[in-house]
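tool=predict chain=A
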Amino acid sequence: MNKNIIGLSIFIILFLISSCHEEFDEKEVYKKVVYIVHSENMINYFTHPFTGSSTEGFISLYCSGSLMPGKDIDLEIGFDDELIEKYNYIEFENEEAKYVKFLSPEYFNIPSFRVKIKGGEPFGIMPIFVTSEGLSPDTTYVIPLRIIKISDYEISEDLSSILYAIRLENAYSGLYQMTGSLLAEGSTDMPQQVFKDKTLVPIDQFSCRMFVSTENELRENIQTRTVTFSIKADNTIAIKEENDILDLGGSTYNPDRNMISLNYSFLSAGERYEIQEKLIRLEE
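tool=predict ok
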């Protein structure tokens, strides 16, 4: 066969393949469905630190498919109270102390429940502003949200709702490694060296709470076996005298080392103990 004919045949074949490929690329090969990002889990946590003012979070809405949406998609979001009941029953059954709670409207603001996914873009977002001041670290607060209306395409049956849960934090909260020197009050013995990883829970912008000494971090012990302290502008620390806690003075925060030094005493089984703790923040 003539080489020119062979070359022409190959060119035609490649052209036809390329044309078919381009035609295939220009067609939608998956159903277009809109869903809330991360809603594969019923509950998702969004961090809102204590700052003295409201902080912004958001949920994202995504339109699936092999091609970008060819037109704007208008969505309406609404509350879904039943989602809280469902989650609490599945996760905790009759343990009501662990139930998540609908965040009171005084602590959040959603400027608009209408979301637009613009043509040519896959995502749209709905801002949520939360005020953390006044919230308890011992309660999980949620905003139950669901897609309730859409202008085009379909709403995902399984990924249309989410529990927007509030995770509180401040500049000092988190996981720390504690080394301590423990001694019974008035004793002449050598102090006992104690060690424990401890969680510092945020109370407000400058205050944290933790369990005393090496106390087990159990929910039922929060009211009686914890110590609360506040870090001042000069990096000195004031320990709150409650739960039979006494502030022995000299507590400080070292911002360069992310180290907290605490000096306090507490009661245990009717006996008072003095403890000096050094807490180094662990990388998360």
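The chain has a mean pLDDT of 90. The longest helix spans residues 3-25.
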